[in-house]
Amino acid sequence: HWFSIDHAWKMVCRKLIMKDLSLFFSDLDNEPYKTIFAEAERVWDPLKNLDYILQSLIQNIFSKGSCASKLEGVCFDRNGKGIFVQQWMKLDQAVYLKNQDIFIGKGTRLEPSVIIKGPAVIGENCDLRQGAYVRGNIFAGEGCIIGHATEVKNSILMNRCESGHFNYIGDSILGCHVNMGAGSKLANLQFRCKDEKLKGFIYPIQLSIESEELNTGMEKLGAVVGDYTELGCNAVLCPGSLIGKGVWVYPNLIVPKGYYPSNIVLAPKDRKPRIFEK
Questions:
Q1: Which of 72, 94, 153 is CA-nearest to residue 119?
Q2: pLDDT digits (tens, 9 = 90+) for 96-148
Q3: What is the DSSP string of 111-169?
Q4: CA-to-CA distance for 86 and 252, rounded, in angstroms?
Q5: Single pTM value for the model
Q6: pLDDT of residue 195
Q7: Torsions phi, psi of 21, nearest 5?
Q8: Cβ-based neighbour number of residue 233 at 10 Å
Q9: Fewer Cβ atoms within 10 Å of its own Cβ: the N or the C terminal residue of the chain?
C-alpha cells in the first residue's frame, strides 16, 4: 500500500518536472490560454517573457475587431507608460491605449485612483477597485477582480480570479475561479544574503521536487495557484509555491515553497482557539 502511494507520488512529481500543466489548469485548449502557454516547458515559463506574449494577444484582439483608442477620465504619468483613473466608469466598448500598451475589455469597471501601467491586457467585465495598482506585465482574463489596495505585477490571472482586498500578487499565475481572501499574499522574493545585496544580483529560486533540485531560472517567482483554489485571509505563499487545483489554504497559514497536489486542505496542526479566564 505504502509502496503504491510512494510510486504514484513520484510519478506526479516527474510529470511536474516535465510538462504537465493539467496539474494546475483545465482550460488550456482555448484562447487566450492556448497562446499564453504554447511554448511553456515549465508551468511558470510564461512569466519569463510575458511582455512578448501580451503583444501577441493584443495582435489577436485587433484581428477580431476594432476598439477605441482614447479613454476619458484618466490622466497619464510623466513617462506616458501608465494611467491614473480619475472617475467612476464602465467601458461600453474595448479600449487600446497604444502608447501605454494597455488594453481594457468591454464591460470592465474602473474606480477612481486605480493605476495601470503597461503592458497590460485586462479582459471583459473585470472589476478594478479603488486603490488597485496594476504594475505592468499583467494579463487578467474575463470577470477578474483586482480590488482595494491590491498590487499585481508580472502575473497572469485567469478567468474570474478574485483578489478583492489588500492582496499582493507578484510573478505569479492564478487559475480560473481562484479566490484570494483579504490580506493574502503571494511573495516573490526569497531572503537574500549580504553578497547579493552588495553586488546587485539575486540567486535564482530553487525547488526540491522528488529529492531533485530544480533551478527555476527566475530571480523572482511567486506562486502558481491551480483552478478553484481558495486562499484564506492573511495566508502567505512563499516564493516558489506550486498549488494544485481545488486546494483550500486556511487563514493565517504560511505555505513553504514546493508542490502541493490538487484537492487537499492545507491547515495548521492545531487550529482550535485557546480559551481561558481573564
A1: 153
A2: 999 999 999 999 999 999 999 999 999 999 999 999 999 999 999 999 999 99
A3: -TT-EEESSEEE-TT-EE-TT-EE-SSEEE-TT-EEEET-EEESEEE-TT-EEEES-EE
A4: 35
A5: 0.91
A6: 94
A7: -75, -15
A8: 14
A9: C
